[in-house]
Design goal:
binds S-adenosylmethionine; about 45% helix; Rossmann fold; three-stranded antiparallel sheet; alpha/beta; 2 domains; about 300 residues
Length: about 300
């Protein structure tokens, strides 16, 4: 296989064949010296090994077209010397589309059932509520959770200590999250009363207020990192809830399984994993998680003995 890949790389330079190679390499997880994944990693420090081949193909095709380069090889040569394009490529590989209260049903369920119960339990046991948003984009999802918690503390007339960690692989997205400035579209699902309470409107932009920003710890972290179990600021994981929504759809099968195993380890017993609207855990993980709700993608961590 490796010889075949190398031979094709020498003979063919059109993007279709090279993209076929990406497919071969990423899906079969072979990492021969001359493959494109290796090239991107070593020359450009861009690790694409966790991404789905079809997604990579579409991103690279788009960059090739937009930069008017002939093929993938010329594109890579160009990226090697063009730092701006390198940043654009990295940013393009990580689609950061998001908005506040994305999937309103999920947030309604969290605000009415899931979180009030958890807050009550924590208050009774003097516990700390620990949550992690993995793949937080520009902060929309984690700030949505912070708004819900703030509202619940007020309604329930109690406030419990919380640690909300929000991580992403992309510096640009994290920088936007730190700034906390959003377009009209991004806040389209936010109720008017929350817009008034938690945002300041300036020049048609919505600035999230400090009282929400300060509830969230933003950190760079690669979910596909094989050498750690949880974001460093969490120290040991032990989360009550991990939200990883609309992120794993870009991962290949092996990396998706590895990420889910990582989440399993990082959750407390009975902890919850929340996925995106159209994301579901594969059947081979039913020994680790059980689905909590027939409509929403919320899974409870099973304890090993439950399966015995
Ligand atoms: C489509 S956005 C989803 C944002 C938000 N969770 C939501 O549902 O609205 C996907 C985010 O996942 C991030 N991401 C992709 N791969 C990642 C990885 N390996 N580690 C951490 N973040 C990653 C991207 O940078 C992007 O910001």
């Amino acid at each position: 296989m490796i010889e075949c890949v190398n031979c094709m790389l020498k003979k063919e330079s059109n993007s279709t064949n090279l993209l076929y190679l990406i497919h071969a390499v990423t899906e079969q997880l072979l990492m021969p010296k001359n493959d494109i994944a290796h090239l991107l990693l070593n020359k450009l420090d861009i690790d694409i090994s966790s991404l789905k081949a079809s997604y990579l193909e579409s991103v690279l095709n788009k960059r090739i077209t937009e930069t008017n380069t002939k093929d993938i090889e010329s594109y890579i040569k160009m990226v090697e010397v063009d730092q701006g394009e390198r940043r654009t490529l990295h940013y393009s590989l990580y689609n950061d589309y998001s908005h506040f209260f994305r999937n309103p049903l999920m947030f309604e369920f969290s605000a009415r059932q899931l979180l009030p119960k958890l807050i009550q339990q924590k208050a009774e046991n003097n516990g700390l509520l620990r949550m992690w948003t993995a793949g937080c984009a520009s902060g929309e999802e984690s700030y949505t959770v912070a708004i819900i918690l703030k509202e619940l503390f007020h309604q329930m007339n109690m406030e419990i200590p919380t640690t909300l960690i929000a991580t992403d692989i992309e510096d640009r997205s994290l920088e936007k999250a730190r700034q906390g400035v959003y377009s009209e579209n991004a806040v389209g699902n936010v109720k008017h009363k929350y817009l008034e309470k938690y945002f300041h409107k300036r020049n048609n932009q919505y600035h999230i207020c400090e009282c929400i920003k300060e509830m969230v710890i933003l950190e760079k972290y690669d979910i596909a990192d094989k050498y750690s179990y949880a974001p460093p600021s969490s120290i040991f994981g032990s989360f009550d809830i991990i939200g990883c929504r609309n992120v794993l759809i870009y991962f290949n099968e092996k990396s998706r399984q590895a990420a889910i195993n990582k989440f399993y380890r990082a959750l407390k017993p009975d902890g919850l994993l929340v996925l995106g609207e159209s994301e579901f855990l594969p059947d081979n993980l039913t020994n680790k998680f059980e689905r909590l709700n027939s409509i929403l993608s919320i899974y409870r961590k099973k304890n090993i003995y439950e399966d015995a």
